[in-house]
Amino acid sequence: xxxxxxxxxxxxxxxxxxxxxxxxxxxxxxxxxxxxxxxxxxxxxxxxxxxxxxxxxxxxxxxxxxxxxxxxxxxxxxxxxxxxxxxxxxxxxxxxxxxxxxxxxxxxxxxxxxxxxxxxxxxxxxxxxxxxxxxxxxxxxxxxxxxxxxxxxxxxxxxxxxxxxxxxxxxxxxxxxxxxxxxxxxxxxxxxxxxxxxxxxxxxxxxxxxxxxxxxxxxxxxxxxxxxxxxxxxxxxxxxxxxxxxxxxxxxxxxxxxxxxxxxxxxxxxxxxxxxxxxxxxxxxxxxxxxxxxxxxxxxxxxxxxxxxxxxxxxxxxxxxxxxxxxxxxxxxxxxxxxxxxxxxxxxxxxxxxxxxxxxxxxxxxxxxxxxxxxxxxxxxxxxxxxxxxxxxxxxxxxxxxxxxxxxxxxxxxxxxxxxxxxxxxxxxxxxxxxxxxxxxxxxxxxxxxxxxxxxxxxxxxxxxxxxxxxxxxxxxx
Length: 478
Description:
Layout: H1 3-12, E1 19-22, H2 27-30, E2 38-41, H3 45-55, E3 59-62, H4 67-75, E4 80-83, H5 88-97, H6 108-117, E5 144-148, H7 153-157, H8 160-169, E6 174-179, H9 184-188, E7 195-198, H10 210-219, E8 225-228, H11 233-241, E9 246-250, E10 261-263, H12 271-276, H13 303-308, E11 314-318, H14 330-342, E12 346-349, H15 356-366, E13 369-370, H16 377-384, E14 387-393, H17 396-403, E15 408-411, E16 429-431, H18 454-457, H19 461-477
Parallel strand pairs: 1-2, 3-4, 5-6, 5-8, 6-7, 8-9, 9-10, 11-12, 11-14, 12-13, 14-15, 15-16
Helix pairs in contact: 1-6, 10-11, 14-15, 14-19
């Protein structure tokens, strides 16, 4: 997470030389970083002091903030010294007693930048990116690659660019995806997946014996590389039981000890870029490339769906979510639909079967075209090719729209952009309230833990409508 700091230093002082002292086991993570000129493995306090004095550094930045780094910066005799304040007491109170304090509401990257602000260095990088990691390891020959992703729709969509990167990195290799039946359609439509296998967790692969059954099937296929964006113990266990010789996943995985390569995981990166970072042990740079945000091509529309749609510009509206605290108020969706109609767009409601009652209510109050529960995944993808804008709660369809190149207005309540699941790419808008109680969970909750639901109640129709108009205006200009 120190990566954005080095970019800020280089942006402010282009000619400065940045040397990073780091534990030996983490040196590879920063090797090749565009803002780092030299990585020096830490071997002891005496060696560190000797190095600092010999090099005659003008500035020393302590981003560790422990007793050892305090001793080093105190004895180093560097003219300009700053240290980040890690709020250690606040962390201990939260971990031990669940006492939340204002210091915990701010990200570590923000506090890192407070330290260099004392030198007049402004923040140049808004968030952590996969470009902040250096490549390490070696590609090694891999003929059969398995990608394991059995999470939600949005997680699966954000794994597709990883398939593309693997195909670029390993030309000639076949890429197989192990996923759930409900998300298999995402990967079947991706040109970088050669084969789709189903992990039937609730059927033949369920129960305690399930991982062994899946592993036996995988072992017979002779995979030589497994890439595992899903951070469950079950996924890592299956890969190990399948005797796949190289297994790359995140160090935050519950089964990280079963991996051969554990890649650093950070909530401060977008999930798409986090997934790309899984190619770092293969010697690849994980920085996003041009066009990284576009990876879904809307297929041809079926005659049935085309017959339901009117001529003219359409606005996609997704009012549902699996989690109550991620749903904006239905009456406000209805009012938004009425305003979009006055702007000359036909609002089209989409969603799954569980959202049908919600769709009926919004359609009844606004006259919007109700397709909730009436489109499958392929038809939803094809619909994206007709939309001028997509208004949605934090959800899987939000990622689908962004991946298809549709400008998105995303409404965030219980969750936040900083968790890494905001609409990826340029031109999108996120509407949210600045509240200390956010986020209240990774995926939201069944009810507001505070009882007030202000994260959604504070978001007005005026705000969301203004974001839609901004997007439509920008589209006309471009």
